[in-house]
Protein 1
Amino acid sequence: MSATTGLPPYDDTNIFARILRGEIPSRRVHESEHAVAFHDIAPRTPVHVLVIPRGRYVSLADFTAQATEAEIAGFWRAVGQVARELGLEARGYRALTNMGAEGGQEVPHFHVHLFGGRPLGAMVPATDSGAA
Ligand code: 5GP
């Protein structure tokens, strides 16, 4: 377990690492020095795109602690640019990142989801069976 991330060390066999290496196909919408974006394989909204850094970062915690200023700036600039290029700005959209077990993170390579194309409803359920 990494002291920085609260998650296991980076796993080079994770699905997004394989997408970055071109071993698994993806429908890419953006490629730049510090970021790649592609359509989610199981879209939850009419537009559902994932933006990932090229670097080996497990999570938001890992990325913000370990990435260089250039990587952080380049990545977040790409998130905004992709949303703009997808035409999401006029109607609005949601950017979301899941971190760790309770955040519901399934793929251990840091990523931001971009959701749009319909009204998105509540940010998270107000109550659920796990609520305190
Ligand atoms: P997480 O739960 O980790 O925040 O989200 C992982 C996302 O990756 C999910 O929305 C899931 O549908 C998506 N995903 C998983 N495997 C693949 C894949 O092979 N290709 C693409 N494009 N998306 C994937």
Protein 2
Amino acid sequence: MTIHEAHQLLKNKQLSSVELTGAYLERISRVEPEVRAFVTVTDKLALEQAQKADELIASGHAGPLAGIPVLVKDNMCTRGVKTTCSSKMLENLVPPYDATVVARLNEGNAVIMGKSNLDEFAMGSSTENSALFTTHNPWDLSRVPGGSSGGSAAAVVAGETVYALGSDTGGSIRQPAGFCSVVGLKPTYGRVSRYGLVAFASSLDQIGPLTQDVTDCALVLNAIAGYDYRDSTSVTYPVPDYTQCLTADLKGLRIGVPGEYFVQGMQPEVETAIKTAIGKLEELGASVDWEVSLPHTPCALAVYYIIAPSEASANLARYDGVKYGFSYQGGSMWEEMEKTRQYGFGAEVKRRIMLGTYALSAGYYDAYYLKAQKVRTLIRREFDLAFEKYDALVTPTSPSVPFKIGEKVDDPLQMYLSDVCTLPINIAGVPAISIPAGFADGLPIGMQIIGKHFAEETILKVAYAYEQATDWHKRKPEISETAQ
Ligand code: GLN
């Protein structure tokens, strides 16, 4: 059931939020042994919130999210509920406050079902870097759900929640959305408050929705977007009603297809599916330029893996065993600090901290970090220029369908490559959405639609028109339920 469907049923009193929540909790207990998307199930809290929502609905004052189950990625602070970042470092951390997005869900009387698994501190593309466990792709349990918001995406398509929140630093909403066949939006940098999101790379991080369709995506964005005085990078632009732009007609819309995103070595079925999908956009009235070039695209991966680890190394310096989370006891002050970080962080997080510290160190700053920032500006300008000619750019979300669990864990470079199509978007700070666009041998393929800064309405419109003309988003995986 989607948000808009559930809302109708609740409003017409055909269903109560307590019943709906109960049904989802039941589903969670049945499929969770296979999928493993949840770090924490907040069943008691959810039923309390559902009860409250029912009272509100009865009084006729319920908004579009009231009484409807949502899952929150476990790197967003939830007051009184553990927020682990899937790290040993924060395994027992219970924040005393809510992230702004969580507060906004609560104001809308959403029902929070729990916290979802991720790659440790959102570093990864498969959830295999979670220090707790790996999430399985509901379409094929031997494959990864993508990452780092793999728990959120898997739970949505497995029917364990109606929708979820994820965070995206280099693709972590869109790539798992593509791998699980759900809709995932990374808003423009600054559109959604990052207050209470555990920072990975602050100039790239952005929170966004993972939903079953585009209408739901617009509804969630309505609720979470907007200025927040607690995040100085959030912008004061007014938030439109994003559901207003959802029309099935693309007449007059100019779409560009940048050749660089059809990278060498990409899976042929993915290329074919995306080109067919773009043909569909043409049928729907858009004019498509198939020959766009964004020549700096190949630099994005290198730029990202300088900038993101640099910012991460600064952000993660706070985990010293004194202020938050895990604290190794028994040694000198320095020894305690060292051991806290040695045992608290996993291998990938340490790799990023080392890369970042190196890139920022006095002798190398100009050669790496400063150079990366300069190339970042070039990439951004290239997008600005493209958006003078096109309303949207369309690309694959990933070069392949979901890969096998274990296939890339020992090869970080291969793992990094699974985000080649999504990283440039964070570097430029523009918005992009991934929507279901086909299957290859039963495995999902995602299409990415990119817009200019603050043009979420345009990409939602393109996504909606495509969704109306296809039914990929209606397909659901069969998961054998193992009653506990
Ligand atoms: N996979 C990318 C990385 O490992 C992006 C992660 C993200 O968007 N949080 O950094």
